[in-house]
Fold:
Amino acid sequence: MKVTTKSFVSLCTAVGIGMSAAGAAWAAESLDDVMKRRGLTQKDVLSAAKTYVPTGKRDEFIAFSSGGQSGQIIVYGVPSMRILKYVAVFTPEPWQGYGFDDESKAVLAQGRVNGKDILFGDTHHPAISETNGEYDGQFLFINDKNNPRIAVIDLHDFETKQIVVNPIMKSEHGGAFVTPNTDYVIEATQYAAPFSKDFVPLEEFNDKYRGAVTYWKFDRAKGRIVPEQSFSVELPPYSQDLSDFGKGPSDGWSFTNSFCSERYVGGIERGRPPFEAGCSQKDTDFLHIINWKKAAEVVAAGKATKINGHDVITIDTAVAEGLLFLVPEPKSPHGIDVSPDGKFLIVSGKLDSHASVYSFDKLMGLINAKDFADKDAYGIPILDLKKSLHTQVQVGLGPLHTQYDSTPCVVYTSIYVDSQVTKWDYCEGKVLDKISIHYNIGHLMTMEGDSTKPAGKYLVSLNKLAIDRFNPVGPLHPQNHQLIDISGDKMELLYDMPLPLGEPHYAVAISADKLKPGIRYKSGWNSREDKRSDYRTRPGREKVEREGNVVHVYGTTIRSHITPEIIEVEEGDTVSIHLTNLERAEDETHGFAIYGTNVNLSLEPGKTASATFTADKAGVFPYYCTEFCSALHLEMQGYLLVKPKGYKAVAAKGAEGTVYGKADYDKQHKTNLETQAVIDSVVAYITSTNYQDFAPVVALVEDATDQLNFAADAKKKAEDFAASQDWQNATLWAGQWWQYQVKAADIGLRAKTYLEQHGAKKVK
Ligand code: RUQ
Ligand code: CUA
Structure:
């Protein structure tokens, strides 16, 4: 059926639906014209075509990039490189209410270090949870280098759920990486320090300063790390760096490299050459090879030592149990990346031009035969480098990290000093291709590159410098992620994306169809604890309760009002406002902010969030919804009245701003009946189709039904007041009835448009 009535048009206008004409100017310029006008080459246009994602279409992969010092995670699509979200992790983030509502403050509080709030993180390496070595899209982990911490993000809602603080480290780097079934998340020290919190002079560096790797136990069913079941292996103060877990044949082992096995302690002010000189003297450092499965058994057997309440396997125990070994790696190494089949490990030397390919088979052969070349100063067996290597390949100056292609044996290594990516074959030991990047690449990422089944197709180069690539924005430059097409024999640079949010160290990308985030919470949900909130409120049950000088407000939000709209407290009260968003509709988030209080909530559909603060000053504090949620969003407002102590009310009743009579009521009533006719026609259209085959429409219909139920309530109130000739209340409730109708109509029209655009069929 066609809806063409006059009232429909006025309704559309009322709900803000524009009758826009499709872009008629599309064909006015030819592709050639545009290329000439903008100075684009054929290659530019081809690159654009490879990355362009038309309006309404989605990306093939989703990348999770570290947000560096921002303490957040950046989510973007590949190949479009469109940024989708910043996930707040270690840093307060107002839009998401993170660090502003009580629930997320509790998450940030888990990350306190020595009792101090730490409100940023130096995020480095994100890791996606794996099942049988393949990305499963359920969880994301990321580490903080500055304050050794790991955060757990649930990809069901892209929210940070937990932060754990490393109990023995004071600096870290080699995290977060997961075992093939995400039983453990690894974290390795960077700068050595004493395990205790005490002062220990630097002169005791060799004896008292230590590195370690921590294996954080992850409980997938709970979606949380279990600190009591986690443990560490003590390591020498070698400045451990990156880590990776074995997989397939090497499952059960982990690998962590190091860059200062010289154990050099700088001190320019003491007349000593700086760290950089002392840490790069030797030709080799050490790769630590750890049998973590055996280590877990050793802990279970009670052979660990409790340090700061945490199980630590000492170096002596690790050596005695035969679970810790070293193999040299040239020179000031950086990346360590295990091959998808788990048979090889690739390490690059920052100050070398080679990438070294270790054979896991050879390493095991030497370990099983106890064929050790030497021991280090702590008694740890050292394997012979030559006997461990599969091959070494000259890949360029300053190689760092390696990522695996979908084609077996093919890898990509970032070359920092030469600013290149080298594509090479580690089985045959030969270079296949090189591409220049701009400038000074750090990490690089292939699609699903850390899994047992890399997807190939694209590579992103995470560059340390942007220099002149973008319009200048002052001395602090954005970072530059460069997208490279790796689907052919030759790598091709497609796109430069500026990232203005800290220095992203590493990123991981997952096939978009593996992510299945929800669109709403179960009603009254505490999203940070994944349970129904103790403070949830159902519609009509809103209330204010006072316990001593604590005032609990149990309220709700729904288009377009906050209940309560007036909150009255006394100066000095502690106010705890708990709001439940009653919406079930997709993307109907409400915000809640109060003047002068730092209260700022994000209430996604179904969520309950709380804000607790002291009303320490008497006064008038307007509050409102911060998300433009509907046509009447601006009216989504209220007043917090903080009354002076002992305040006596002056007037029982305020004068009405506008007084309404019978004529006003009749006019509104008539409009409402006409509106209802339009709604009925939209409903008739929807129910005449197979709308139940379209999940988004089913959700919209539910939402519209909600609104119509509210409308029926308001209608009854209006008509009751009219019956008793209270025209003021009758008119106002009739207005509210219409507000609900408008919302229902808005939703109904959205559903109708969806059905028309998605080829719904007539069924009756
Ligand atoms: S790092 S640029 Cu902090 Cu992962 Cu290598
Ligand atoms: Cu809710 Cu604006």
